[in-house]
Amino acid sequence: MITIAIGKGRMQDSALELLARAGIRLSDEAVNSRRLALVDETGQYRFIFVKPADVPVYVEHGIADCGIVGRDVLLESEADLLLPLDLGISRCRIVVAAADANAMTNVQGMLRVATKYAQIARAHFGARGIPVEIIQLSGSVELAPALGLADLIVDLVETGVTLRENGLTVVEEIAISTGRLVVNRASYQLKTNEVGKLVKTLETVV
Ligand code: PRP
Q1: Which SS3 state, helix, strand or coil, does residue 189 take?
Q2: What sign results for the dihedral spanned by CA atoms 181, 184, 185, 189?
Q3: Which of 13, 140, 158 to mutate to test the pocket of ligand 1 (most atoms within 8 A of CB)?
Q4: Coil, strand, or helix at residue 200?
Q5: CB 52, CB 11: distance < 8 Å
Q6: In angstroms, what is the span from residue 159 Cα to ligand 1's centroid?
Q7: How far is Cα 200 from Cα 194, in angstroms, rounded to an integer?
Q8: Measured between alpha carbons, how far is 136 from 114 in angstroms, rounded to an integer?
Q9: Span between the terminal Cα atoms of the chain, in Å
Q10: Cα 74 from Cα 83, distance rounded (Å)
């Protein structure tokens, strides 16, 4: 049996939908339960549902053989994983946004950047030689500029509604994020047939 870690929340529904199209299904009863570890109808796959940021951790440590997680999470993680497949699900953008479209030039002194994505933000501004103070938040990042906590935010944008309703506009795009299949290095060697079968099966529906 292969264990697949799935990020709860934004990615979960589209991941389960994609797997179902590939013939890998969980019963409705299982999906609607509060159990965090479930086996699919064929008994070939065990799913564990964890916080998105923990998917790379479970897969790197081999607790899960594979995982489905957004590129945003992978860019933020330092886990050493194989990435055989872009699943194309949950497409969104990682952007720099601000209330003032010219915030990058208008702000005096060091720019303050609020984000859940400290690594991505640091790398982005570092590569451009712009010194910034990173303010790490865990969510509701769009509030930070209006409340005076930050000049800019780095965050995910899917529909753009959250930015708009909080008076923010995109200043720069950093990257596109989609759901990825990730695989543990040892599992890729030791469970070649099972992992290969999963990759091939998913390839047919991507
Ligand atoms: C994400 C992101 C934005 C929002 C963008 O948050 O951080 O807040 O979704 O979506 P939109 O462009 O469709 O409005 P998420 O729902 O993951 O919650 P969180 O901020 O509390 O982590």
Answers
A1: helix
A2: negative
A3: 158
A4: helix
A5: yes
A6: 9
A7: 10
A8: 6
A9: 23
A10: 10
Q: In this predicted model, what pLDDT tens digit does every residue of 36-64 receive, in sequence order?
A: 999 999 999 999 999 999 999 999 999 99
Atom 22 of ligand 1, residue of closest alpha carbon: 139
State pTM to two decimals: 0.94
Over residues 111-129, the pLDDT tens digits come to: 999 999 999 999 999 999 9
Q: What contacts 101, CB < 8 A, 6 or more positions away?
A: 169, 171
What contacts 179, CB < 8 A, 6 or more positions away? 11, 14, 15, 18, 68, 69, 70, 71, 86, 87, 88, 89, 90
To which H or E segment does residue 194 belong? helix 192-203
Listing from the earlier edge strand, what are the strands of the sheet with 45-50? Answer: 37-39, 45-50, 2-7, 66-70, 179-183, 82-86
Q: How many CB atoms lie within 10 A of CB 59?
A: 28
Pocket test for ligand 1, best of 156, 163, 164, 166 (most atoms within 8 A of CB): 156
Spell out which residues line ligand 1, taking CB within 6 angstroms: 10, 139-142, 155-162
Look up residue 192 and give its amino acid. T
